[in-house]
Model the fold of this input.
Amino acid sequence: MRTAPHRLAVFGALMLIAITGCSRIHGRPGPGPEVIRPDEVLTFATLYKENCAACHGTNGKNGAALSLANPVYLAVAGEQILQQTITKGVPGGLMPAFAKSSGGTLTDRQVAILTQGILQQWGSPAALAGATPLPYLATLPADADRGQQAYATACARCHGATGEGSTDATSKTGAGKLGSIVNPSYLALISNQDLRSIVIAGRPDEGMPDWRSDAAQPLTDQQITDIVAWLASKRIAEPGQPYHSH
Done:
């Protein structure tokens, strides 16, 4: 007959096994690392990869959306606009709101980390080389007819006389034929603000110069406002329908 102390020892051993877990008995590892909640992610690299890279590119360029690895764009937009855009998105475009306060998933702290990280990673104090930046937002009355004239002077050589693309683009961009910038599908997916940002800051990832670089004189705020109005006038109400040029 087993004694009471012996039974107590066996019971104690069983309790120890229950506490330590049978995974250790079979040689399997114990509990894994602590799971980090989404709102606890505070590193720029992770936040950018999970929220921005799919549209803006792994390294801030060569994505479907506006290039962020563009010091001129960052200098023109500035910290306040950049943070506001991440927070609230772009009305009329595909850029969604990311802040929880605007229906997104990121905390205010995470939005601030993304903003500062983008500026530190791709911004440059010397980006404008002493030039006065044009206003990020359009404030002047627009005229599409004037915009067509400004487009013909500053943009047609690379993008074609009517924006349909051109094969005579290699001298500046090295890109060969450029696609249409009046394509209804393209215009349906891009906001007027993004069009303005591209005309001002260029697309260095695609060889497109900024507002200072590809004309006898830098484009003015009025000319850029008018060019965007002309491009916007090419939108059609239902872009999925057949397109007929006018």
Q: What stands out?
A: The chain is about 45% helix and 0% strand. The chain has two domains: 39-122, 144-232.
